[in-house]
Design goal:
This protein has 211 residues and is an alpha/beta fold. It is built from 7 helices and 9 strands. Homodimer.
Length: 211
């Protein structure tokens, strides 16, 4: 899989993709993640990417022409990519959507910022507009990290443990059962006796009941 991220702040991605499952997936060449500075497609010497909104209003709006040029450039390097705009007004992100995106070959993720994005990006550039929740963030960078993490871990071979993936929270719309490890007792806080019983049938029933 190929993932391109368009952002005004590429430095924010230094670190989150360099560890754990995401790092291993890249090392295995299961995914290639490239971060692009949106200002690289600006036309003026000031690298301007935003302007005042028509009709008035607070803040600045990211320009449609810059985003369209950036997306067109990245699209020319691959066939049939999925273009995702991250915006607070988008459709709520789910585990089902993560699974759908993980089956694609190329994602182009646009990180919104400032007071918003020219709505023509929603209408004519993006294939989907996604929100990770009903709250306000400073930009689309953190949501992009969330989406990339949730998608990459679903790629075949990324986790290396199919059973672990199958039992994860939110798969099949279920929340994962409580889990415990040693010590068996700590500060009078005890592991449920059923998990120590060795009765695998009853343990499986307990897990289903606790989900």
């Amino acid at each position: 899989m190929k993932i391109d991220i368009l952002t005004l702040f590429p430095e924010m991605f230094s670190g989150p993709f360099d560890y754990s499952i995401l790092r291993r997936a890249q090392d295995k060449q299961l995914v290639k993640i490239d971060i692009h500075n949106l200002r690289d497609w600006a036309a003026d010497k000031y690298k301007s990417v935003d302007d005042r909104p028509y009709g008035g209003g607070a803040g600045m709006i990211l320009k449609v022409d810059i985003i369209d040029r950036a997306v067109a450039s990245l699209k020319s390097q691959a066939s049939n990519p999925k273009i995702i705009l991250l915006d607070a007004g988008g459709k709520k992100y789910t585990q089902e959507k993560a699974g759908e995106l993980s089956r694609g070959e190329h994602l182009i993720v646009i990180c919104g910022h400032y007071e918003g994005v020219d709505h023509r990006v929603h209408e004519h550039v993006a294939d989907e507009v996604i929100s990770i929740g009903d709250y306000v963030l400073s930009g689309g960078e953190v949501p992009a990290m969330v989406i990339v993490d949730s998608v990459v871990r679903l790629l075949p071979g990324a986790l290396g443990n199919k059973k672990s993936l199958a039992e994860e929270s939110h798969n099949n719309e279920e929340i994962e059962y409580p889990q415990y490890t040693r010590p068996e007792e700590y500060k009078d806080w005890k592991v449920p006796e059923i998990l120590l019983s060795g009765d695998h049938k009853k343990i499986e029933e307990w897990k289903k009941f606790r989900q």
